[in-house]
Each structure stands twice: as C-alpha cells, then as structure tokens.
Amino acid sequence: MNTLVIDIGGTKFTVAVFDDAGAMLRRKSRATDREGGRDWMLGQIAVVKREWAMPLDRCAIGFGGPVDFEMQIVALSTHVGGWADFDLCGWVRRELGIENVVMDNDANVGAMGEGIHGAGRGFRPLFYMTLSTGIGGGILTADGVYRGADSYAGELGHLTIRPGGPDCLCGSQGCFERMCCGLWLERDHGKPAKELMDNPAFVENYVVDFALGLKACVMLLNPARIVIGGGIAKAGDKLFVPLRKELRRQVPSWSRARLDVVPGSLGDDSVLYGALELARLSRV
After folding, report:
1. pLDDT reading at 32 higher than 90
2. What are the phi and psi torsion angles at 231 (to 5°)?
C-alpha cells in the first residue's frame, strides 16, 4: 500500500510517497507562491502526482493552519489566501483520484512524526512546536494527539506574550508568532531568520520572548519533553543553548517541571513521517 503524504506550509510545500513498510519512495519540495494562493499550490501538487505516475492507495495531509479535524476541513490560513473553510480532502478525492484521505494541522502531524520516529520517542506527554514561517504546536499524549474540544489545542503561536505589542496577522497584538516567527523576523529586521541566528546579540534578546511562550507551555502542560522543528530550529546550539538558559531563568525556581527542550531530529520530514502515522492510525 502506497501512501501519498503532503506537508503544506507558509514557505514551502512537500509531497512524498511511502510504501507499506514505511520506506520513502519519492519526495519533492517546492517554495510557496503566496501571491498564487491556494489554487497555485493545488495545481502544483496535481502536477507532481501526475509526474510520478504510480499507484497511490491513500493520502494524509499536514496543513499549516487550523484544521477542523472532526469535519476534516481547513479552517483557515493566516499566511496564504483562499483556504478558509476549504474541503481539501474532497479536492484530493476529486482531482487526484485518491478515495482514502485524512488531514490534520501540521503541528499535530509533526508531533506524531517526532514522537514516533524522532526526538520525542519515549517522551509523553510531548509538546512539539514548529518554528518556521509561523508558529504552531502539537500535544502528543500516551493516548495520541490531544486536539481539544474544537481542534484548536496547541495553537501556542497566538498566545499573547507582549500585551499591546505589534499587530499580528490573526488580528491580535503581541502574539508569540508575531514576535518570534520567521515571517516577522525578516520583515522587522530586514534579514532572514537564518542570518539573524548567527548574531549572538540578536539571539540573546530573541530568546527572552521565545522563552515567554515556552514558559506558558511548560506551566500549563508540564511536558516530558519539548521538541522544536521547522527552519529556525536548524540553528542548533546557537539558539538552543541561550534558550534553555533563559527558560530556566523565567520558570519559577520552585517548579520541578522538566525543561527538556531539543531540536527535532527529522529535519524537514517531521510532518511527512507524522502524516504516514496519521494515515495508519486513522485506517484510511
């Protein structure tokens, strides 16, 4: 059984195929054309599927924005237009000819990937955070992904960490995402996040806001481990050493909470491996 997996993000999208044994047979990634919006990306996915010309039995998707998991529709995307209330699973059935389809928010799917195949193996509860164009979070317990009553659990990116701060794309102010994600870092500082992480003075200030967001996660969820994936996490020790130090400073000294914060080990493939597990667990 071949599984088509799709990771739709604000900066890029990736399509891959796994066989039944979990081996990755194909993989292709392309940059997102924000101006082209939803229709451009769907067209590109359809092109890739045609190019591969191989049997596909099921499909699983990690979408970079809120997803109504029960209804299996995209709620919205704050980074790319045209996705609000979109039936992405229905589109896959109609346009790609794959009947068995399941979808979830990319951070939930990434949590499954890292929690089963990567840096979160053996740690429950696990909090997975994606730090890239935007910020998202997924909570993986011993019983599986915790999605909350309305599929919005884990949306750490829109926690307010700077009341009265700059406007966020979500309509609020001073959100964790607004202060720390790649999109806004580049807009605010005129350099991509990768370059900014090479500047120790910048990172020293940056981790103050970053730790404010993670502190909320630690105090609310008390995870056994926090795994951070996404492009900015590739900075490695340049980011994680000062971040851990700042987090220890901010979390109350009486707290016995574990402050185990590590980068993801699957690189750009956390969501792909998580999507494979989503398909398996959903039995699509």
Report:
1. no
2. -60, -40
